[in-house]
Design brief:
With about 80 residues, the protein is an all-alpha fold. The chain is built from three helices and no strands.
Length: about 80
Amino acid sequence: MNKDLELKRQMEIEVNDERNRMIEYKAKARGFDIMTYAFAALMFSLALMDIDIWAEILIVITYLAVEIYSVYYRMQLEKEM
């Protein structure tokens, strides 16, 4: 890429293009939405299987940490706008 400056410039444009970034962000948001429901279903099914309580507590704490961080980050972004 160092030899072909035009190709390097084109790659930088594609990486920094706002449309590509918006597509990337929407894909991440959709993945997070699916992960939220899948994680909740996993916790519920593990609770029904009567696994060790400490494993279930660890999973619940991780789930809550992700959700709390999501809310916190959303509040930070709303303050900026």
